[in-house]
Design a protein that fits this description.
Elements (H helix, E strand, L loop, with lengths): L10 H32 L11 H8 L1 H31 L7 H9 L6 H12 L4 H8 L13 H25 L3 H9 L4 H29 L3 H5 L10 H10 L4 H27 L13
Helix pairs in contact: 1-12, 3-7, 3-9, 5-7, 7-9, 8-9, 9-12, 11-12
C-alpha cells in the first residue's frame, strides 16, 4: 500500500466528507435554516418596516405573555427532578437484574407506544372526576368527594411523567448496568455500607449520564404543549410559552410575534442546557464501563 505524501489529500478524508455531507445538508435544511428564518421573522414586526426588536419588547412588557416563561419553568423543572429521581431509583435497583426484569421493563416503557393524545385520553378516563380511580376510592369510603386530578397543574404533571419516564429509565438503566460491578464489590469488601457505596462510589460514576438524562427531560418538558391543553388550563394555570406562541400564530395570525416567542423559548431552553453542561463538567469523569451485569 502506497504511503500518503505530505500535503497529499487522503482518500479516507474525501470519503468521510462525502458521507458527512447528507447529514450536514439535513441539519442545515431542517434546523439551521428554520432557526435563522425564525429569528429573521421575529425581527420583522407586522406593523413596522425594517428590522426591530419591537416583538421582544412587547413580549416582556406584557405580564400576560412573559409570565408564561415562569409557568413553563414551574412545570418543567419539578417534572424533570421527579422523573430523573424515580428513574434513577428504579434503574439503580435493577442494575444487576431482578426477577421478571423483562416483564417489569416492558410495563414501565409501555407508555412510549401510546402517544401523547391517547395517553391524555387515558388519564382523563382513569383520573377524571368520574374516572375509575375516583370511583374506586369513593366506593371504598376513602373519599367523600372526587379528587380533581385533571384540567389543572396535576393533570399536566401526570401526563409529562408518563411520557418521559420510560426513555429516561431506559437510558439510566443502560448507563448504570454498564458500570463495572467490581468497583461496587471492592467498596463493600473494604467495609462500605449501601449508602456509602451509592454516594461515594456509584453516584460520581452515574452523574455524567444523570446530567444527560436531566438535560433531555428538561428540554422535552419545557416544550410542553398538547398535555397543557388537553389536561391543564390553557387559559390559566398551565398557559405555557408554547401555547402563547401557538395563539399568536394561529389565532391572531401574527407569525412575526409568534416567532419572537419561539425564539425566547429556545433561548431559555438553551440557558437551561448551558447550566446543566457547566454542572456536568464539574462531575467526576472516570472509566465506568465494565462487564455490566453478572
Amino acid at each position: 500500500m502506497r504511503r500518503r505524501r505530505v500535503g497529499e489529500a487522503s482518500e479516507l478524508d474525501a470519503l468521510a466528507v462525502v458521507c458527512l455531507l447528507p447529514s450536514l445538508l439535513y441539519v442545515v435544511i431542517m434546523f439551521v435554516y428554520p432557526f435563522l428564518n425564525g429569528i429573521y421573522l421575529s425581527l420583522r414586526p407586522a406593523k413596522q418596516i425594517g428590522l426591530s426588536l419591537a416583538n421582544y419588547v412587547a413580549f416582556f412588557s406584557d405580564e400576560w405573555q412573559y409570565r408564561t416563561v415562569w409557568i413553563t419553568f414551574g412545570i418543567a423543572v419539578p417534572n424533570t427532578v421527579v422523573v430523573v429521581a424515580v428513574a434513577l431509583l428504579l434503574a439503580y435497583g435493577m442494575r444487576r437484574g431482578i426477577w421478571l426484569e423483562r416483564t417489569i421493563t416492558t410495563i414501565l416503557v409501555l407508555p412510549i407506544s401510546l402517544g401523547v393524545i391517547l395517553l391524555a385520553e387515558g388519564i382523563l378516563g382513569f383520573y377524571g372526576g368520574r374516572g375509575w380511580f375516583n370511583q374506586i376510592l369513593l366506593a371504598a369510603g376513602l373519599l367523600q368527594e372526587p379528587l380533581t386530578l385533571t384540567h389543572n397543574y396535576t393533570g399536566v404533571m401526570l401526563s409529562l411523567f408518563m411520557q418521559q419516564f420510560p426513555f429516561c429509565f431506559l437510558m439510566l438503566l443502560g448507563y448504570i448496568s454498564g458500570i463495572d460491578p467490581s468497583l461496587e464489590s471492592s467498596a463493600r469488601t473494604l467495609g462500605a455500607g449501601p449508602w456509602i457505596v451509592f454516594s461515594r462510589v456509584m453516584l460520581p460514576l452515574i452523574a455524567p449520564g444523570l446530567a444527560i438524562a436531566f438535560a433531555l427531560v428538561f428540554v422535552l418538558s419545557f416544550g410542553v404543549f398538547p398535555s397543557a391543553i388537553l389536561l391543564g388550563q390553557p387559559a390559566g394555570a398551565t398557559r405555557t410559552i408554547a401555547i402563547a406562541a401557538y395563539q399568536q400564530a394561529f389565532e391572531h395570525y401574527d407569525m412575526s410575534y409568534a416567532s419572537a416567542i419561539a425564539v425566547v423559548m429556545g433561548l431559555f431552553q438553551l440557558a437551561g442546557l448551558v447550566v446543566i453542561v457547566l454542572f456536568r463538567r464539574r462531575l467526576v469523569m472516570a472509566p465506568t464501563m465494565g462487564v455490566g451485569k453478572r
